[in-house]
Design a protein that fits this description.
heterodimer, A: alpha+beta, GMP Synthetase, Chain A, domain 3, three-stranded mixed beta sheet, B: alpha+beta, Ribosomal Protein S8, Chain: A, domain 1, 3 domains, 6 helices
Amino acid sequence: MAKGEIVKRVLDYVVGQIVDDPNAVEVTIIEQGPEDVIAEVRTGPGDMGRVIGRRGRTARSIRTVAQAAADEEGITASVEFED
Amino acid sequence: MVEWVEVRGKSIEVAVAAAMNELGVTERSDVDVEVVQEPEKGFLGLGGRDAIVRVKPRVRRGRGRDRRPRTGASRTGGSRPEGRSRDAASRSGGQRGSNAPRSQGRSGGNSRSGAPRTRSPEAANRAERPPVDVNPAEQAPVVEQFLRGLVESFGLEGSVRVEIEDDVIIATVEGEQTEALVGVRGSVLDAVHEITKTTLHRQFKDTARVRLDIAGYAERRRQALSIYAGQLIEQVMSEGGEIMLEPMSAADRKVIHDSVAAVDGVRSYSEGEPPRRYVVISQVEDQAGEEGDDEGDDEV
């Protein structure tokens, strides 16, 4: 299993459920260390606002869920939202 | 133009971020932070407390020490080194460069004249919307489907059930493995709850209320709350006086009220406004008097 696979699958799913254009959602996993990944999240134009949410509330929730997914793999994951 | 805000959050970091957002400042180095209260962890989210920070834009050089709130502040506009953060804040208020009192733009957004306010960053979205045209029966399958997909994306085995009770969508995720979706003190559960609501908002203008339990956590929390309440009741009975609890949700307060109502010699009531509403447990002087509480059975 590729590192960060569950993280990617979960982020693809969750972000895809929030945006208007799920096909434009792109999640890239970048290995940082043996137990550490960064997940870069991109969305179609206009969708990032919804992903961030008011006061970053949704983004915070997404990060928490992504880390829960990372826990399943015994790694840590930080999420970066790329505009 | 010293405006400072006092913000409460789960951690200092969260509170500062919310405060900066509030002030319209993006750089951490542009604010001064005073920690009013360090956060403390509790048990299952009980007995802990939030961080409270006081944050204000950092004033650098320039106009010196005269930092009286409001009066004359807006006159000196662009030449001030600290104009940047001020502008950022003004812009959102649409009051840039005018003498009019600021802080009118964003509803409740900027603080006036440095008056302290404590607010929870979580509070923002909490405002009850009137239940117009909300059709829980139409929304429940969306909740169910989202949660199913989530469990599946995690690769977990588990089941999802939704019911509607009093127009509230009650979603239950079960299965040993779904413990992974609970997290420390229910943090992941709260996040899943939040995202579930967000997905509803994408499809429906007015959304039904959603209650979520995963792997029996909410039920266990109820039990832990009862035990906690029992300890506090004993303390009040032996020491007298009153004990003020930390703010809790309506559901949590009800558990406390119910526990107190079952014991003679103590009573409980709630004070404060949601989401900072909290329960007070107090001794009843007249032992023969009512042992109940003022709201345990209906409104909590």
